[in-house]
Write a structure and sequence with these properties.
With about 280 residues, this protein is α+β, with helices and mostly antiparallel strands. About 35% of the residues lie in helices and about 15% in strands. It has helices spanning about 1-10, 30-45, 45-50, 70-75, 95-105, 120-130, 155-160, 165-170, 240-245, 245-260, 270-275; strands at about 140-145, 145, 185-190, 195-200, 205-210, 215-220, 225-230. Helix 6 (about 120-130) packs across helix 10 (about 245-260).
Length: about 280
């Protein structure tokens, strides 16, 4: 039998047979794997699904369907038509397995106590302007004139937004932009199709931020080469910041942006972003 074969192989290398199961290598030691999955979940999935998967800007991860296999498939393939990205390439196969087993273990879990995490504006400033990241906030946005010009200056927006609103705008890119100046566009030329933000124009040229890759590239296109320029729905802002930044980094960034509009004494706590329901 296969199980017997595993026991024999385990004995041959000095492993206690009682500690070996017929699970896949990445899932052996369920308690240790689940703990590892919980650590990964808290820095990525928790951003949208809430502490211990209780739900927040994304649905609660509760129900009989949340088996390891179901979660593994959802993480590997994403959820088309939703904001849920694929995590292949972000997590290893072992890490996806660990998160899947952690989520499965939550089905009889009680809500944990509130997290003591809070945002640090100074750390948020570092994360916002980090040059080593192509997806750093500053490549598109500015704060008090410092940074990119593709999107709006966030210091002007922060004062009127709550910490939760800012957090959700980072993690869940808006489906519609109220500010028409930053509406995404599709520019078709004789040679290619660009997507991005129109930066301006003269009688002879159109200046266009090409956001097909980051950081955006400012292109100058002769109007004689332009076939069409149309406004697109949605936003060019990436939708995968929940997997690119840790929860702590996201809280830090929100605290930094809020501090520029509300003063240096602003505090952003975990509870401000994920209030009790």
């Amino acid at each position: 039998m296969a199980i017997a074969g595993i026991w024999i192989a385990a004995s041959a290398v000095g492993v206690q047979p009682a500690r070996v199961s017929a699970q896949t290598p990445g899932a052996r030691g369920a308690a240790r794997t689940s703990q590892e999955g919980g650590e990964l979940f808290s820095t990525t999935c928790q951003v949208c699904h809430g502490e211990a998967g209780i739900g927040s800007s994304a649905p609660s991860l509760r129900g009989t369907k949340f088996t390891p296999g179901y979660v593994r498939q959802a993480m590997s393939e994403g959820r088309p038509g939703t904001m849920m990205p694929r995590f292949t390439g972000v997590f290893t196969t072992r890490e996806i397995e660990a998160v899947a087993r952690y989520v499965a273990s939550l089905q009889n879990a009680q809500r944990p106590p509130d997290s003591g995490l809070r945002g640090d504006p100074a750390a948020g400033e570092t994360a916002f302007f980090r040059p080593q990241r192509a997806h750093s906030c500053y490549v598109c946005h500015s704060v008090n004139g410092r940074g990119g010009r593709v999107g709006p200056d966030l210091a002007q927006k922060a004062a009127s937004k709550s910490a939760r609103e800012l957090f959700e705008k980072i993690v869940l890119a808006p489906h519609r932009l109220k500010d028409g100046a930053y509406a995404p566009s599709r520019l078709t030329t004789r040679l290619e199709v660009l997507t991005g933000i129109k930066a301006g124009e003269t009688e002879e040229v159109v200046r266009f931020y090409d956001t097909r890759s980051l950081p955006p590239m400012l292109r100058t296109i002769n109007k004689s080469d332009v076939v069409s320029l149309t406004t697109m729905p949605g936003s060019v802002m990436p939708t995968d910041y929940a997997s690119r930044f840790t929860l702590q980094e996201l809280l830090d960034i929100v605290a930094f942006v809020k501090s520029t509009g509300s003063g240096p004494d602003i505090q952003v706590r975990f509870q401000d972003v994920f209030p009790r329901q």
